[in-house]
Write a structure and sequence with these properties.
transferase, alpha/beta, 415 residues, 7-stranded mixed sheet, PyrdxlP-dep_Trfase_small, adenosylmethionine-8-amino-7-oxononanoate transaminase activity, 36% helix, binds pyridoxal-5'-phosphate, 4-stranded mixed sheet, Adenosylmethionine-8-amino-7-oxononanoate aminotransferase
Amino acid sequence: MSGSPIWHPFTQHGLGEPIPQVERAEGAILVTADGRRVIDAISSWWVTTHGHAHPRIAAAIARQAERLDQIIFAGWTHEPAEEVAAGLRAIMPGNLTRVFFSDSGSTSVEVALKMALGYWLHRGEPRHRILVLEHGYHGDTIGAMSVGARGAFNRAYEPLLFDVETIPFPHDAAARATLDALERACRQGAAAFIVEPLVLGAGGMLTYRPAVLREMHAICARHGVLFIADEVMTGWGRTGTLLACEQADIAPDILCLSKGLTGGAIPLAVTMASEPIFAAHYAPDRARMFFHSSSYTANPIACAAAAANLAIWREEPVRERIADLCRRQGEALAALADHPRATALRQVGTIAALDVGAAEGYLSDLAPRLLRFFAENDVLLRPLGNTVYVMPPYCIGDDELQRVYRVIARALDEV
Ligand SMILES: *Cc1c(COP(=O)(O)O)cnc(C)c1O
């Protein structure tokens, strides 16, 4: 047992693996207490977009902390929240007229599901069936786990998870089977379909084509099944566009955003909803209000960070930086294409992934061996099973990105 009382997430303390201490971070670099400079090649678990300690976001947080740190959000409002909501309305799909705040990706999903169920109840035709995509991940709370893939991560809780109908993942050759299954499930009546657009992150950086996303949306629209886009990971430019949904030219009925919403500096989430969903809850009757809140809903400091993120998107060449990173990722990945152990090379926007050898599953011992190798070489990469992916902050320098890929190439040879 180590001296620290901390119980870390997704960490088996029984393995006694070292837990490095980080002292500060800047751009794409983490500086550890023992003076190592580690490249953050996974954006600190997919959250950091513009880079660590972006001066505008850091300043916004400091300024807001002195002015108004926290205020109840039931029946009250404040300027940073209004600014974020207006900013989101300006750049997100036009049908998403309502912004509901929460604190994490998982809660944004819980809120989305509760909104969908409330919508059907208040329309007087209650529906409870939720459709999900195979290999999906939507968070670690009970509701979010219920709509995600079942496996080693949630075996202990499985009897408590509610039933959903799982639509097979659209592997390239099997997209028709996916669409047919979705069509059948929709025909039987469902409240909503929840999906990660274009890239299933925790499921192993599994990718599918925009045309399939577009068709899935069309099927749901045809049957009046609400379409929930969980863009918690894919949002904020990760897939090359602000939202992955843009590439399919679709607008969801409900949209979940978190991770990059504050540039990755501080927790905040929103669930955006279309007007009919808000309208279904709108009445002089208090029993129809939306029953969801948490203590820190729309915390002003977090909202100030999100407002700064929106200003960065408006005023800095973020889209150019993303386009440039997409190109560099493509080139670096292509250079690994001939390696005999690198398989299933894939890229969606700023996200690049490959499999090492044949599939072994999340708990295979290849992942921890790779993890250790990357750590020893001062690169933060965290393989999913035998899938190695690179998802850096958009500010990562050429030299830094090249070093990441040199270490991956050596890992392919040595681990
Ligand atoms: C990370 C993630 C979540 C959960 O977000 P948390 O902030 O970790 O609760 C939900 N959905 C997707 C697609 C994610 O990648």
